[in-house]
Amino acid sequence: MAFLNDIPAAVAAMHIDNNIASCALAATIPEFRNNGLKTGLLHRRIYEAYNANCEIVVAQADFGASSQNIMERVGMQMAWTRAVWVPRK
């Protein structure tokens, strides 16, 4: 959890299994966005994955979303994209 001025402002979760760290969740309360909280929580999860001797850290984000941009800024890179197909109306 991340705090801003002693107020809970953002949360993130990570699951570790078989030396793989999966960043499973990240959310910031809207009025606290653009303060670097999500970036800080991602740095912290990568640090914790390193301390747990993980070989890889993975995460998911919508293509072009702010989460993707944050992940790329901290040094992560896209491994693949997934298309979601829906019927035409």
Task: Explain what the structure shows.
This protein is α+β, with helices and mostly antiparallel strands and 89 residues long. The chain has a single domain (2-73), classed as Aminopeptidase (3-Layer(aba) Sandwich). It has two helices and four strands, in the order βββαβα. A four-stranded mixed beta sheet has the order 1-2-3-4, with helices on one face. The longest helix has 15 residues, at 37-51. The mean pLDDT is 95.
Name some characteristics of this structure.
single chain, 89 residues, alpha+beta, Aminopeptidase, four-stranded mixed sheet, 2 helices
CA radius of gyration: 15 Å
Mean pLDDT: 95
Q: How would you spell out the order of helices and strands? A: EEEHEH
Estimated helix fraction: 25-40%
Q: How would a crystallographer describe the biggest sheet? A: 4 strands, mixed
Beta-strand proportion: 25-35%
| Total DSSP helices | 2
Let me know the number of strands. Answer: 4
| Count of all domains | 1
User: Could you say which structural class the secondary elements and strand pairing correspond to?
Assistant: alpha+beta
How are strands sequenced across the largest beta sheet? 1-2-3-4
What is the CATH class designation?
Alpha Beta
CATH superfamily: Gcn5-related N-acetyltransferase (GNAT)
What would you call the shape? globular
Task: List segments where confidence is low: pLDDT < 50 over at least 5 consecutive residues.
Answer: none
CATH topology type: Aminopeptidase
CATH architecture: 3-Layer(aba) Sandwich
Tell me the distance between the termini. Answer: 42 Å
